[in-house]
UniProtKB/TrEMBL annotation:
Zn(2+) binds at residues 444, 447, 468. NCBIfam families: dnlj, PRK07956.1. It comes from Cupriavidus plantarum. Residues 7-22 have a biased composition (Low complexity). Residues 627-705 form the BRCT domain. NAD(+) binds at residues 49-53, 98-99, 150, 173, 209, 326, 350. Its EC number is 6.5.1.2. Its cofactor is Mg(2+); Mn(2+). Keywords: DNA damage, DNA repair, DNA replication, Ligase, Magnesium, Manganese, Metal-binding, NAD, Zinc. This is DNA ligase.
Length: 709
């Protein structure tokens, strides 16, 4: 799932009454994080790609328009989701980045124009305003940019590391920086050579896609059904599920295939001149490469390839959801470089979503891991996008009203390669006389807590964050994460067992765990249990800001938690503060103040905090900070590159302690850019805008001048 602004205009409507871009950005980030977790980690997506693309594109647009809102932990600054705890982590030596998406012909024309301009060439057909104009001027493409065109497979991205021709490691993409070690499983895939043919490089990291042919998928499902076992929804889920088996013998029974399409680390030989030459080289080494590829020139060639593949898509033996364009010359790829999380030299051109009509038999609500109350349409079964679907997300109450969806309506359902589709529109003329309007419940169907909808927000939420069973696993994972209580070893699989077996209901229950109880769990040795108990004990004296952040209060991230701790000094003062007092805290606006006040107004939240304190958890407290303005108040810094002695986080903390704001991107409002080794596009932009550029010594000198160093 990757982003595109055009999609945002199509399907990610803004919640009614949002009072600021910051609130919309916060909402988008939380939604994207939720959906990324479902898609990349759990292999159980809850929205179509098209809807994710829309949300992602809108977030990109807002962060571009308001660069002061960009943060390092934004979904736009990373790819995908976290590795599964069941496998060892693998740090990718060369990040596995995602691609920006295109949906319309104009997206491809603009991509081609940007590449041409970035390479210092005139756009091939600068006067073209429409695809028709573009093709009418096709004779002008002799000087156009050359591209390699491939298929966009619907599988699981994989990195294969060969050393001296032998396969030594296989890893999933994970979050782009760190993936899952699935070497034992990948070795069972017959399409992947364990040893390369001919003279192989000293090190070759091959990037590609693990997938399943439709015919193999059908046979697998038939065997599963015959054996009375779970069948798979689509080939992608079957491939992902097969690779994530803890027992490689199960993977070996699954008919997985692989196509190579990219390169990571390479040592011992020169890089190929072009992408197409690289793929030819892969084939000579014995790596499977898809034959449905072509080298073309300019936007006319790109669009012609897209249309040809679109016409043949149904006849292909595997699932694809688009095509991929890459500038063919690797030197030109390097010249164009990257923007944020994606290369400038490549584009994924996705096929349109598929649509069918069906009947809404009921509308129910689901409680998400963050407490979001999502209306879900229960549908008469309909075959769309290659699978039979029976439900579709309606996103929120405002969306139900906007689309005027009633129980009993005939609706148009769209599915874009995902499991759960979306309701696009109602076929109003088919509404029956007994159709019923949807009524949003006032109490959580899981825990009975009050459902609230803050002013300016579209999503209603259960207020039982610390007690609601639907939110329990996520609340515990958030509580234990490194930036909160930092309980090492308390990962997804362990939390899942603790919650499913009823051992832990609230964060306070963690501090009652003993070695015997933990060691009785599946895959938990006594030594591991002892380490986790020690980690829990070691978390009993957190910094106040970490404890506040760990509570999972809506709209309270790390920065706001630090501001609250610094302003009030004591936990009880934070809990007792009314909205007026909260508004005095740096960067706390009305929506955040209301969210904090509402959280501590809930008796069950206060009870969990009391239980935590009774269990020996003692947040460090201090006197409230003096109200005098910090020396760098109002100043914005941007960090880029590798500093000689300070980590990025340490430098950020020093600047924030002096009152500065540390932004993720450079704009005309930036006061200083602190540049280290291998500083990239941020440094270039600062120089272009005339922003002051200093190094680590310069930053420390500034801090000393104001008495903060």
């Amino acid at each position: 799932m990757t982003g595109n602004t055009r999609g945002a205009q199509a399907s990610a409507s803004a919640p009614a009454g949002v009072s600021s871009p910051a609130e919309r950005v916060q909402w988008l980030r939380e939604e994207l994080d939720r959906h990324s977790y479902q898609y990349y980690v759990l292999d159980a997506p809850t929205i179509p790609d098209a809807e994710y693309d829309a949300l992602f594109g809108e977030l990109q647009a807002l962060e571009t328009e308001h660069p002061e809102l960009l943060t390092d932990d934004s979904p736009t600054q990373r790819v995908g989701g976290a590795p599964l705890a069941a496998f060892d982590a693998v740090r990718h030596r060369v990040p596995m980045l995602s691609l920006n998406n295109g949906f319309e012909d104009e997206d491809v024309i603009n991509f081609d124009r940007r590449c041409a301009q970035g390479l210092g060439r005139a756009a091939p057909v600068p006067a073209a305003e429409t695809p028709q104009d573009l093709f009418s001027q096709a004779e002008q493409i002799d000087s156009a940019v050359e591209y390699a065109c491939e298929l966009k497979f619907d599988g699981l991205a994989m990195s294969l590391r060969y050393e001296n021709g032998k396969l030594v490691q296989a890893a999933t993409r994970g979050d782009g920086e760190t993936g899952e070690d699935v070497t034992a499983n990948v070795r069972t895939i017959k399409a992947i050579p364990l040893k390369l043919r001919g003279d192989a490089p000293e090190v070759l990291e091959v990037r590609g896609e693990v997938f399943m042919y439709r015919e193999d998928f059908d046979r697998l499902n038939a065997r599963q059904a015959e054996a009375g076992e779970k069948t798979f929804v689509n080939p992608r889920n079957a491939a992902a599920g097969s690779l994530r088996q803890l027992d490689p013998r199960i993977t070996a029974k699954r008919p997985l295939s692989f196509f190579a399409y990219g390169i990571g680390e390479l040592r011992g030989v020169d890089r190929p001149v072009t992408h197409s030459v690289m793929l030819d080289g892969f084939a000579r080494l014995g790596l499977p490469v898809c034959t449905e590829r072509r080298v073309v020139k300019g936007a006319p060639g790109l669009l012609a390839f897209y249309r040809e593949i679109g016409e043949r898509r149904a006849q292909l033996p595997y699932d694809i959801d688009g095509v991929v364009y890459k500038v063919n010359a690797l030197a030109e790829q390097e010249q164009l470089g990257f923007v944020s999380r994606a290369p400038r030299f490549a584009l994924a051109h996705k096929f349109p979503a598929q649509e069918m009509t069906t009947i809404v038999e009921d509308i129910e609500v689901q409680v998400g891991r963050t407490g979001a109350i999502t209306p879900v349409a229960r549908l008469a079964p309909v075959f769309v996008g290659g699978v039979t679907v029976t439900n579709a997300t309606l996103h929120n109450e405002d969306e139900v009203r906007r689309k005027d969806v009633h129980i009993g309506d005939t609706v148009i359902v769209r599915r874009a390669g995902d499991v759960i589709p979306e309701v696009v529109a109602v076929v109003a003329e088919r509404r029956p006389d007994d159709a019923r309007a949807f009524v949003m419940p006032t109490e959580c169907p899981v825990c009975g807590s009050h459902i609230e909808k803050l002013e300016g927000e579209a999503i209603a939420r259960c207020t039982g964050g610390l007690i609601c069973a639907a939110q329990r696993k996520q609340a515990l994972l958030h509580f234990a994460q490194r930036r909160a209580m930092d309980i090492e070893g308390l990962g997804d699989k362990l939390v899942e067992q603790l919650v499913d077996q009823g051992i832990v209901r609230t964060p306070a229950d963690l501090y009652k765990l003993g070695v015997m109880k933990l060691s009785a769990l599946d895959r938990m040795a006594e030594k591991s249990a002892a380490n986790i108990v020690a980690a829990i004990d070691g978390s009993r004296t957190p910094a106040l800001n970490r404890f506040i952040f760990a509570l999972g209060i809506r709209h309270v991230g790390e920065s706001t938690a630090k501001d609250l701790a610094k302003h009030f000094g004591r936990l009880q003062a934070v809990m007792d503060a009314d909205e007026a007092a909260l508004l005095e805290v740096n960067d706390v606006g009305p929506v955040v103040a209301q969210s904090i006040a509402n959280f501590f107004a809930e008796e069950h939240n206060r009870q969990v905090i009391e239980d935590l304190l009774a269990s020996g958890v003692t947040p460090s407290e201090s006197e409230p900070a003096a109200r005098a303005p910090a020396p760098f108040a109002g100043k914005t810094f941007v960090l880029t590159g590798t500093l000689p002695t300070l980590s990025r986080e340490a430098a950020k903390e020093m600047l924030e302690a002096a009152g500065a704001k540390v932004a993720g991107s450079v704009s005309k409002n930036t006061d200083y850019v602190v540049a280290g080794a291998e500083a990239g596009s941020k440094l270039e932009k600062a120089q272009a805008l005339g922003v002051a550029v200093i190094d680590e010594d310069g930053m420390l000198a500034l801090l000393r001048e104001v008495g903060a160093g």
